[in-house]
Specification:
The chain is α/β, with parallel strands linked by helices and about 500 residues long. About 40% of the residues lie in helices and about 20% in strands. The strands form six sheets. It has a seven-stranded mixed sheet with strand order 14-15-16-13-12-18-19, sandwiched between helices. Strands 9-8-7-10-11-21 form a six-stranded mixed sheet, with helices on both faces. The protein has a three-stranded antiparallel sheet with strand order 5-6-22, with no helix packed on it. The structure holds adenosine-5'-diphosphate.
């Protein structure tokens, strides 16, 4: 990859202690046994930012040992005490928001304003699940038998695992470790190879908040060793639950591996979100939503609008509005003032975007704006709008993960719903209408775990996030989220 001269966000760090180049096991900062490291690069410049340890099976097993030992006391620590630590941890994330955002932008590339938003989102999971820790209620069930009592309580599972992606390097970490440790579990977490620095910074603050050693362990490894680390985690009989966010392909693999040990899984996998603009929609509102669910994070989110369906009678008007908007978006590195579209994460990501556009053009689509890598070079891509896209094209069947909007025209509500649901995925769906009856009809008909009506922004720690069909199993965030991380024990008293 070529190197572009820009200053690194890391040069601006106030507290350099937050930047770690070691893994975190049993409350200690450690390297690989053989001292091996791999590079973390700034996607905006291609420069090496840091080198972190290459962990394999031996080091990962040590992390599982630490988590196992820590569970002995953490599992029985009062919920109120766990809650207090999570609260301090959330506060520390907010106090250190600027530095955490700089680390996030440095390794991931998103505009600093978006990183600040993500850090707040990440902190919100620590706060929320700290509060939920105190509300993991059980039940008392009226007995059908004389001399008996039936009670139900929720228990932590034990050692848990987390595997997280690069697109939200801070929030995906806390969305897993916060409910896990709030409920009394311990965790071994493997962040994505592209973005381990945010996960390690979260550990620095966990330490400062007073999280005991071994409760959260972060193991780093490059792509070539992800499978080894994953297999070590899933084949260990002590691992009782795995929380994963990433591709459907890897999710299925991990689910298969977990079958051998009957380990619980919570999987947040790929999406293929439809974004339906009906003729009675407020078009300005729909256009505004395109920022949050199409161009945010350069389109690299699992809930990105991937198929933009626009009803024929408003098609040309909406395309014209969107074209103006996309043409005005500012492409730049995350620390540049006013930057709205950062680089893509890596060459593979850029190649996929180009492949999708080429496939669409071959099949009759047309570029209205953008369509090529940006003049800045490197991993920057132009905000793009294509018309004449059909549901069969690659970009309608797979996540593009780029700042590309492909417009699919439709005639009727039935047709829009049929196209929207014609996918193995079902994470998120958006639609725009002012008609109340249609709002209910379409909202109920869409096959998705999350539906946004007249908005492109659905992420909040208080709501359940997760998909149906091949987009996953389980929910993260909200009161439902903590349920994934506990077991139900039915305890019966007889002979009374
Ligand atoms: P993406 O395509 O978005 O990078 P992946 O599913 O490949 O999504 O990656 C998500 C996370 O899963 C990353 O932390 C990655 O290192 C990890 N991962 C990839 N392959 C495996 C595997 N075979 N076993 C365990 N983890 C894996």
């Amino acid at each position: 990859m070529t190197t572009i001269e820009t200053s690194s966000a890391l040069d601006l760090l106030e507290d350099r202690e937050l930047l770690r180049e070691l893994a975190f096991v049993n409350g200690e900062w450690v390297g690989a046994d053989d001292g091996g490291t791999f590079e973390v690069r700034d996607p905006a410049s291609g420069r090496v930012l840091a080198e972190v340890p290459v962990f394999g099976a031996t080091e990962t097993t040590r992390a599982l040992d630490a988590a196992g030992a820590a569970f002995e006391t953490w599992g029985t620590t009062l919920a109120k005490e766990r809650a207090a630590i999570l609260r301090r941890w959330a506060d520390l994330m907010r106090d250190n928001s600027e530095d955490l955002s700089l680390i996030l932008t440095a390794e991931q590339g998103k505009p600093l304003s978006e990183s600040r938003g993500e850090v707040e989102y990440a902190a919100s999971f620590l706060e929320w699940f700290g509060e939920e820790a105190k509300r993991v209620y059980g039940d008392v069930i009226p007995t059908p038998m004389e001399g008996r009592r039936i009670v139900v309580f929720k228990e932590p599972l034990g050692v848990t695992g987390g595997i997280t992606p690069w697109n939200f390097p801070s929030a995906m970490v806390t969305r897993k470790c916060a409910p896990a440790v709030a409920a009394g579990n311990t965790m071994v977490l493997k962040p994505a190879e592209q973005t381990p620095l945010s996960a390690l910074a979260v550990c620095v603050l966990a330490e400062r908040a007073g999280l005991p050693p071994g409760v959260l362990n972060v193991v780093t490894t490059p792509a070539e060793k992800a499978q080894e680390v994953g297999e070590t985690m899933t084949s260990d009989p002590r691992l009782r639950m795995l929380g994963f966010t990433g591709s459907t392909e890897v999710g299925k693999l991990l689910m298969k591996q977990c079958a051998d040990t009957v380990t619980k899984v919570s999987l947040e996998l790929g999406g293929n979100a439809p974004f339906i603009v009906f003729e009675d929609a407020d078009l300005e509102l729909a256009l505004g939503a395109m920022q949050s669910c199409k161009y945010r994070n350069s389109g690299q989110t699992c809930i990105s609008a991937n198929r933009i369906l626009v009803q024929e009678s408003v098609h040309d008007e909406f395309v014209a509005m969107l074209t103006d908007y996309a043409a005005g978006l500012v492409v730049g590195s995350g620390t540049e003032e006013g930057s709205q579209i950062g680089p893509l994460i890596d060459q593979q990501g850029l190649d996929k975007v180009e492949r999708h556009i080429a496939n669409a053009l071959e099949s009759g689509a047309e570029i209205v704006v953008g369509g090529s890598p940006h003049d800045r070079g490197g991993l920057f891509f132009q905000p793009t709008v294509l018309t004449g896209v059909s549901p069969e094209m690659d970009m309608s069947c797979e996540e593009t993960f780029g700042p590309v909007a492909g417009i699919i025209p439709f005639r009727t509500e039935e047709e829009a719903i049929a196209i929207a649901n014609d996918t193995p995925y079902g994470l998120c769906a958006y639609f725009f209408t002012k008609d109340l009856a249609r709002a209910w009809r379409v909202g109920e008909a869409l096959e998705a775990g999350i539906v946004g009506l007249n908005t492109g922004f659905v992420s909040t720690e208080v709501a359940p996030f997760g998909g149906v069909k091949q987009s996953g199993i389980g929910r993260e965030g909200s009161k439902y989220g903590i349920e994934e991380w506990v077991d139900t024990k039915y305890f019966t008293f007889a002979g009374l």
